[in-house]
Automatic annotation (TrEMBL):
Coiled coil: none annotated. Residues 12-137 form the CHK kinase-like domain. It comes from the Eukaryota. InterPro entries: CHK_kinase-like, EcKL, Kinase-like_dom_sf. It holds the Pfam family EcKL. The gene is LOC112056622. Signal peptide: none annotated. PANTHER family: PROTEIN KINASE-LIKE DOMAIN-CONTAINING. SUPFAM superfamilies: Protein kinase-like (PK-like) (SSF56112). This is Uncharacterized protein LOC112056622.
Length: 214
């Protein structure tokens, strides 16, 4: 567990786990399946906290959580290693929505077609299993909170977000280190790594195969 030194309305100050030999994978690499399973498990617990708040502190949830709107608005008809001692974690993209959005965002920006073909169902099962176990700590039954059949339907109904997220975010992920875009200008210049085309092609082919694209 990462230690929290301070938490208030202005900031959350967390332990620098890089000092304890923690290393982040290179952003262009496929996330290793062992790490992927850990992240999906932790994501289920993180989302589980929202379900607990909704059940235990309804007023707070409705006033402080449900009101957080998404800063991203995808138009479906028209497809934009630090060495510092202090690292800012930007929460501007935190908003109230289906938990499937986080799962798909992470999977489709951090994996390739081979990994998804081999492990997508396993990861989907793992998430709901971990969510079930986490809710049990608070005497909550997942069938009352987020039943498996609802989860499966949400997953299927939200699949288009995976493609949109990949198209939106992947140019940044695969930008070469020596050419970063100037986000303060309207004209962004990218030098894209050759792995970008392969990764996006795999995703488009998946979506054609499942019928979301035609």
């Amino acid at each position: 567990m990462i230690e929290s030194y301070e938490c208030n309305s202005d900031a959350i100050i967390l332990e620098n786990i890089a000092r304890n030999r923690f290393k982040s994978p290179y952003r262009m690499d496929v996330v290793p399946i062992q790490l992927l399973k850990v992240i999906i498990s932790q994501l289920a617990k993180f989302h589980g906290l929202s379900f607990v708040l909704k059940h235990e502190k309804r007023d707070y949830f409705e006033n402080k959580i449900e009101t957080i709107k998404s800063p991203l608005h995808f138009d479906k008809n028209a497809w934009k290693d630090t060495n510092s001692e202090v690292v800012l974690i930007d929460y501007q993209f935190m908003f109230y929505a289906s938990p499937i959005i986080d799962i798909l965002y992470f999977i489709y920006t951090g994996t390739d077609g081979q990994l998804r073909e081999a492990h997508m169902n396993e990861l989907k099962d793992l998430y709901h299993t971990e969510l079930t176990k986490f809710l049990q700590y608070f005497a909550l039954n997942v069938n009352d909170i987020y039943p498996r059949e609802v989860y499966e339907k949400d997953f299927q109904d939200s699949l288009d977000f995976g493609l949109m997220a990949a198209l939106y975010v992947s140019p940044v992920i695969f930008t070469e280190e020596d050419v970063y875009p100037d986000f303060g200008k309207d004209d962004w210049s990218f030098k894209i790594n050759k792995r970008h085309k392969e990764r996006i092609t795999q995703i488009v082919e998946e979506y054609l195969e499942c019928g979301i694209l035609n």
